[in-house]
Q: What sequence folds into this?
């Protein structure tokens, strides 16, 4: 019996994943389930992008991280506002964006 | 020492990399050769000018963060490989080991209490023709389970891929990063007028 | 007749136990351990993450300048610099404290730079990528101009520096590598030879040819 229990304990110990060491940043397991889900879905989308686009996103990530916190928050709020647009408003926004861009130097 | 050989030694001489014997020979040649002395001076000016260039370049926070993120990813990949090697020490998956352990426990308990499976219950089960039994044992043909597949894609794995685990905030903010320019100039874009709009924002009535 | 003595550049003192013509000879372990960079690297080998970040901050400005002069492009230099430090991490256990850390680090940097120069298509991709990024340019935090010269430097000095950078960038890759390595603080010719995987004699030949080219191209400025 003691032997059986000992084997069970060893097996359980082997079945447990090794504790992960973190190299800075917010560890995965500290994200909320919603955050993990969102990150996972976006990760899958990111994998579908061509390499050049992935590199561009990484550079933008560098720039985003370098922004002051209030500026990062402003972008998040704008994104929320953008998501709140109905389909017609979004089409109009895209048109305006193209017009705005064509007028830039 | 001739001029050709003397000139070949000049860079090393200015850098202090010439052995004493060769340096002495060069010095003796220079004592009697004006062109080589001028050439040496030019070599020295060139190397001094090079040494005067800045040897360092400012490293942006972004470069540091990207580098550290890649290193975190490499560290996570190392741990994943080490974890897999550890699991490979066992010829069977860990959950199977746990199952075996449970069975061992169960057998241990059963043999202590002296109970044995009732042979009569087994023997009383009618023997079906093997083909019929096989047919019944066949799994149902696979049906399309789009909901289950979609659930699988939506639910993150228990152990995320190394790249995701190393920088989850990149992927959480992916939509913002993809639309960064639009979001940075959101207000300006919103106030841009389109050609067929009057300044008040209403479309002009069409003619005809 | 008085003999003309050759003015010498300040070089790091040679280890008295090491003959001048013996390339790659190990320094004494005690000397290496006294080097703070080596001590940092030993902590990195033990898994100290803070030590790695400190090492990055110490070495990256020099590495970035080196790669920038080597590959000739800001974006590529940043990517190669990242690659250098990722390699330093990945192969951290291969570093032996008997050799100078600079030698090891700049060996990695040189190999990665030479690899990049052998890939002409990489230049094209980077150019396209930079062009596309420029099209989608948005306001971001401005970085200080690393090439900014102090106010005291005259216009002539600035022009000389600019011409030098151009001339160095035009050298054949191996000559460029030898020249840039020889200017890295603390590297002797034998360290350059170790980095390039050649003899000290070959390094001297590379430097001679490189210097001749620079003197010829910069005669009007020197």
A:
């Amino acid at each position: 019996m003691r032997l059986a229990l000992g084997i069970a304990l060893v097996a359980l110990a082997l079945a447990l994943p090794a504790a992960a060491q973190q190299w800075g940043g917010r560890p995965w397991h500290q994200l909320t389930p919603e955050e993990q889900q969102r990150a996972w879905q976006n990760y899958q989308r990111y994998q579908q992008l061509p390499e050049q686009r992935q590199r561009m996103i990484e550079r933008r990530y560098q720039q985003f991280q370098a922004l002051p916190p209030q500026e990062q928050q402003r972008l998040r709020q704008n994104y929320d506002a953008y998501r709140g647009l109905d389909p017609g408003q979004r089409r109009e926004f895209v048109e305006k964006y193209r017009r705005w861009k064509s007028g830039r130097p | 020492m001739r001029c050709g050989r003397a000139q070949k030694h000049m860079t090393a001489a200015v850098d202090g990399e010439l052995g004493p014997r060769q340096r002495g020979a060069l010095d003796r040649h220079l004592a009697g050769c004006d062109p080589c002395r001028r050439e040496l001076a030019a070599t020295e000016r060139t190397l001094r000018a090079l040494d005067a260039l800045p040897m360092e370049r400012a490293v942006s926070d972004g470069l540091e963060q990207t580098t550290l993120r890649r290193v975190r990813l490499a560290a996570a990949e190392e741990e994943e490989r080490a974890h897999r090697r550890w699991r490979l020490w066992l010829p069977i998956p860990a959950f199977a080991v746990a199952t075996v352990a449970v069975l061992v426990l169960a057998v241990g308990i059963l043999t202590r209490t002296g109970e044995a499976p009732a042979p009569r219950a087994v023997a009383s089960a009618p023997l079906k023709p093997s083909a019929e039994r096989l047919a019944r044992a066949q799994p149902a043909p696979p049906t399309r389970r789009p909901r289950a597949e979609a659930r699988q894609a939506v639910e993150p794995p228990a152990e995320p891929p190394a790249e995701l685990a190393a920088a989850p905030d990149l992927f959480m903010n992916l939509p913002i990063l993809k639309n960064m320019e639009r979001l940075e100039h959101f207000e300006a874009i919103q106030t841009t007028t389109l050609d067929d709009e009057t300044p008040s924002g209403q479309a002009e009535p069409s003619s005809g | 007749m008085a003999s003309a003595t050759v003015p010498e550049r300040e070089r790091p003192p040679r280890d008295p136990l090491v003959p001048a013509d013996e390339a790659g000879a190990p320094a004494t372990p005690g000397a290496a351990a006294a080097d703070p960079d080596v001590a940092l690297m030993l902590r990195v080998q033990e898994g100290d993450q803070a030590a790695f970040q400190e090492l990055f901050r110490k070495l990256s400005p020099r590495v970035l300048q080196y790669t920038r002069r080597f590959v000739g492009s800001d974006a590529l230099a940043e990517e190669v610099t990242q690659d250098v430090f990722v390699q330093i991490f990945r192969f951290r256990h291969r570093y032996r404290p008997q050799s100078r850390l600079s030698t090891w680090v700049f060996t990695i940097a040189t190999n990665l730079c030479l690899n990049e120069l052998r890939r002409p298509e990489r230049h094209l991709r980077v150019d396209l990528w930079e062009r596309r990024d420029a099209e989608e340019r948005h306001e971001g935090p401005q970085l200080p101009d690393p090439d900014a010269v102090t106010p005291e430097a005259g216009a002539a000095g600035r022009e000389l520096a600019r011409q030098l950078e151009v001339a160095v960038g035009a050298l054949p890759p191996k000559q460029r590598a030898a020249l840039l390595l020889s200017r890295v603080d603390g590297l002797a010719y034998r360290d350059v030879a170790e980095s390039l995987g050649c003899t000290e004699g070959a390094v001297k030949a590379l430097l001679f040819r490189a210097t001749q080219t620079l003197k010829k191209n910069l005669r009007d400025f020197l």
